[in-house]
Amino acid sequence: MAYLPHTDEDRRLMLQAIGVARLDDLYEAVPAVHRFPELDLPDAISELEVAAELQALAEANLDVRHNACFLGAGAYHHFIPSVVDAILRRGEFYTAYTPYQPEVSQGTLQATFEYQSLICNLTGMDVSNASHYDGATALAEAVILALNHHRGKRHKVILSPAVHPHYRETVRTYMQGLDLQIVGDEDPRRDAAELARRIDGDTAMVAVQYPDFFGTIVDFTALGQAAHTAGALLCVVVNPLALGLLKPPSAFDADVVVGDGQPLGIPLSYGGPHLGLFTTKQEYVRKMAGRLVGETVDSRGQRGYVLTLTPREQHIRREKATSNICTNVALMALASAVYLSVTGRQGLRRVAELCYHKAHYAAAEIARLPGFRLWNQGAFFHEFVVACPRPVPEINEHLLEHEILGGYDLGQVHPSLAGHMLLAVTEMNTKDEIDDLVAGLEEATHA
Amino acid sequence: MNVPQDLKYTKNDEWIRVEGDLGTIGITDYAQEQLSDIVFVEATLAVGESGAKGGTCATVESVKAAAEVYLPVGGTVTKINEELPKSPEKINQDPYGAAWILQIRIADPSELGGLLDAAAYEAYCRERAS
């Protein structure tokens, strides 16, 4: 049976209305040779056969349950307590789309309010919106906030070269066509002091990452002061999980803190969905895109939740809006809120500590191998860079034979970083896995 | 509807109080009534910056809409009401008093001739209401 809702009579009436004799006449503009290509599909198969075939295809994928994963670079393999999924899959949350009459969806609003509160707590910032798509779009929105704060009178944004390369690409895509210079990330080795020297009266914002893309933990207090002296804003891109251990970016007097919430209870899922965190100071709340849920009391004095800032892009500012994205990822925001609630302050610190110690054990062992050298200057969190004696793709191929997903090839980011591998270690990596990695790397140099 | 006699008005519902070569600017009682509860106001020109007649000088946002405030005449900003953003509801309560938005030094007094007086503005508001 064909699932087509229109009857022949419907079609006849529609064709008549537009003055076309036959349906095929609508396709006349398409060259005949392309009109009905031979699809050459195999015969239909049963559901049982389809399931078996899909299973076989799925098993051909490499996954982190069957391979030791040391690949991070923005997406991290962490433990997800089963309560996260149990709550996400409740019909009330799982099926709900944007509540267009938000106040009748008190449960959805409360979940978002709690997410915002937890993220503010973690980052030390005043306000969090209900989230963006991912860390990259959140950073682009931060740049837009800064440009609007300066009312288009400043034309320069400084990006640290240690901000995730995909995020920097996304910022450039967003800003196409604007009279804006995006500078600072030409040389991957440029540090915070060098970035500070590039700040001038035309700089709208300086954006850095913490821990940075290479895993290094940098204190941005001085950079924040330099930015503020020049009237520029400081944006810090964070890994929220690291904030279980590190002092929050509010300590650098950051004006905007963004990041990707994937490490907080969201699976790798071959690339998404992720969660864009966006927080700022109270004074910039009306420059912030998206929506914000608030807590209030109703006429009977009962606690209730409201959209304090509705998606103003649609309702109030419309063509005067500064952003055209008001979509949030409510389900992923809920996942991170549940994750943070069940881990708690102590639990999050413990996860971060496990990541930190395991990464440092791995780094120390690898640094002892002949030909390998630790590249990071100073403290790092759960990711680090090693200079390798052979091309990274060759090493990774060897590791894969031992069911190990090796590190990220930094030659993809900048030619001067060829031969450098970015390795991530989380609480999911056992000591045995780390020892296997070290042995595999050593072997790879002789293979 | 309150339309003070001593002010000049625009068809965009701004008022200007002229004292010598200075002009104080705000939005009218009719405008605040139309916008309903004002929740945000921000001058978009800084002290020392100039704008031409009809140029944007502030943004006002209510629970219903966002509106730009335009300069009734060209000039250079001499003062901004710094207190107003902290309590934007003053625009609803006292649009011609505490809720002045900014003050300019008028560049060309002859531009004032093109503005409406109280009677003409009141008639214009009534026309729109009917």
Number of helices of chain B: 3
CATH fold-level label of chain B: OB fold (Dihydrolipoamide Acetyltransferase, E2P)
Mean pLDDT score of chain A, rounded? 93
How many distinct folded domains of chain B?
Answer: 1
- Rg measurement of chain B, Å: 13 Å
Mean pLDDT of chain B: 94
What is the second-level CATH architecture of the largest domain in chain A?
A: 3-Layer(aba) Sandwich
- The percent of residues in helical segments of chain A reads 25-40%
Number of helices of chain A: 14
Q: What sort of overall outline of chain A do the alpha carbons produce when their principal axes are compared?
A: globular
* SSE string of chain B: EEEHEEEEEHEH
Question: Distance N terminus to C terminus of chain B?
Answer: 14 Å
Structure characterization notes:
- The complex is a heterodimer of chains A (447) and B (130).
- Chain A is an alpha/beta fold.
- Chain A folds into two domains: 68-78 and 344-446, Aspartate Aminotransferase, domain 1 (Alpha-Beta Complex), CATH 3.90.1150.10; 82-339, Aspartate Aminotransferase, domain 2, CATH 3.40.640.10.
- Chain A has helices spanning 8-18, 32-35, 47-60, 82-88, 91-94, 106-123, 135-149, 165-174, 192-197, 221-229, 312-315, 330-367, 392-401, 431-446, and strands at 68-69, 127-128, 156-159, 181-183, 203-210, 233-238, 256-260, 276-280, 292-297, 303-309, 373-374, 383-387, 404-405, 408-409, 420-424.
- In chain A, the strands form four sheets. In chain A, strands 2-8-7-6-5-3-4 form a seven-stranded mixed beta sheet, with helices on both faces.
- In chain A, a hairpin with an 8-residue loop joins strand 11 and strand 12 (383-387).
- In chain A, helix 7 (135-149) packs across helix 8, helix 12 packs across helix 14 and helix 13 (392-401) crosses helix 14 (431-446).
- The longest helix of chain A has 38 residues, at 330-367.
- Chain A is globular.
- Chain A starts with 7 loop residues before the first helix and ends with a helix.
- The model of chain A has no long low-confidence stretch (mean pLDDT 93).
- By secondary structure, chain B is an alpha+beta fold.
- Chain B has a single domain, classed as RNA polymerase II/Efflux pump adaptor protein, barrel-sandwich hybrid domain (OB fold (Dihydrolipoamide Acetyltransferase, E2P)), CATH 2.40.50.
- Chain B contains three helices and nine strands; from the N terminus they run βββαβββββαβα.
- In chain B, the strands form two sheets. In chain B, strands 1-2-3-9-8-5 form a six-stranded antiparallel beta sheet. Chain B has a three-stranded antiparallel beta sheet with strand order 4-6-7.
- The longest helix of chain B has 12 residues, at 118-129.
- Chain B starts with 7 loop residues before the first strand and ends with a helix.
- The chains are: A alpha/beta (447), B alpha+beta (130).
- Chains A and B meet through loops of A and strand 6 of B.
